[in-house]
Specification:
By secondary structure, the protein is an alpha/beta fold. It is built from 11 helices and 6 strands. It has a 6-stranded parallel sheet with strand order 3-2-1-4-5-6, with helices on both faces.
């Protein structure tokens, strides 16, 4: 069975928590707010991102402040070097060689996303790459559009979404896709597990769990067992009984 995997980027394929934390603190400095540590970032992480900043500065941002915050955030990351997780590229290649298709959907600004994917030399693995083009939002609002833009031969495949946040799981649920969450990203593993979604500690395990769950979905239901003995044209050997 060939499937299609929609990958998340930040915190999933990329090991960029410290870069994102640096970008957030750079932005908070511009907002005259105190910096935060990684534990605080993970504990307060929420989407849309503007809501996260409301939590961090303890007040809503004005539209002018939000525009400046988005610009400061992107400027900081343009000067950062993107880093794939060690297992990511070999895994993408293996999934491709097994005949599965893959695409990339992120709420990272489109310009930054495409630039990082190109710099890392992995564009070839993805049938489609979509970053955030419009206003700040959640993945549930853009996953359906991402899938609609895929070729029909890919859209017809069983769908697996692999990400690192509850937002990824909710988006998958909205389009009746299977999701598996990776615990090394932007949201604490305890929060992911307590929400009831499948959670793994590696990307390899996420793919394996997703494949097993999709195969189980596709398997025909087994008939209920009864006490009726099936008819056989050959009698059983002497001394043996039907069970």
């Amino acid at each position: 069975m060939s499937i299609h995997i929609v990958w998340d980027w930040n915190g999933t394929l990329t090991d960029d928590r410290q870069d994102l934390l640096g970008a957030v603190n750079h932005t908070l400095k511009g907002l005259r707010a105190a910096p935060i540590d990684l534990a605080t970032y993970q504990a307060r992480h929420v989407l849309p991102v503007r809501r996260l900043y409301t939590r961090l500065v303890n007040r809503p941002l004005t539209d002018s402040e939000w525009a400046t915050a988005q610009r400061d955030f992107a400027d900081f990351l343009r000067h950062s070097t993107p880093r794939l997780r060690t297992e990511a590229e070999p895994l993408l290649a293996r999934v491709h060689d097994l005949g599965h298709s893959q695409s990339l959907l992120s709420l990272y600004p489109e310009e930054l996303l495409r630039g990082e994917v190109q710099r890392l030399g992995i564009t070839r693995f993805f049938a489609r790459i979509d970053g955030r083009r419009g206003p700040d939002g959640t993945k549930e609002g853009v996953l359906a559009d991402h899938l609609t833009a895929l070729p029909p031969s890919i859209r017809s495949r069983p769908l697996l979404v692999i990400g690192d946040s509850l937002d990824d799981a909710r988006a998958a649920q909205a389009v009746s896709a299977q999701s598996v969450l990776f615990s090394g990203g932007l949201e604490p593993a305890e929060r992911l597990r307590s929400a009831g979604w499948p959670v793994t500690g590696t990307l390899d395990a996420a793919v394996n769990v997703g494949l097993r769950r999709l195969a189980a979905r596709a398997a025909p239901a087994r008939p209920a067992r009864t006490s009726t003995i099936p008819f056989s044209p050959h009698p059983p050997p002497k001394g043996r009984r039907h069970l």
